Amino acid sequence: MTRTPAPQPQRSNSRANRARILAVAQRELGRNPDTTLEDIALATGVVRRTVFGHFPGRPALLEAVAQEASQRCSKR
Fold first, then answer.
1. How many CB atoms lie within 10 A of CB 37?
2. In a 3-state reduction of DSSP, which class is residue 27?
3. Which of 16, 20, 33, 73 is most enclosed, with most CB atoms within 10 A?
4. Sign of CA dihedral 33, 72, 8, 20
């Protein structure tokens, strides 16, 4: 049986990139629901690989955006 390694804590710049990607994704998806990961990467000021480093694909990014919005609403 292979054990899955425990997630490594993210560096502060990695956490900041993820937060920025999510914020930009929310804004861009609000403007155009068909926005691509490439568009989001360009608007965030990172390369596409950075986006894929945090989110394995568009569905994962959409889920994270929805979770962030849900958490913000529940804090109100």
1. 16
2. helix
3. 20
4. positive
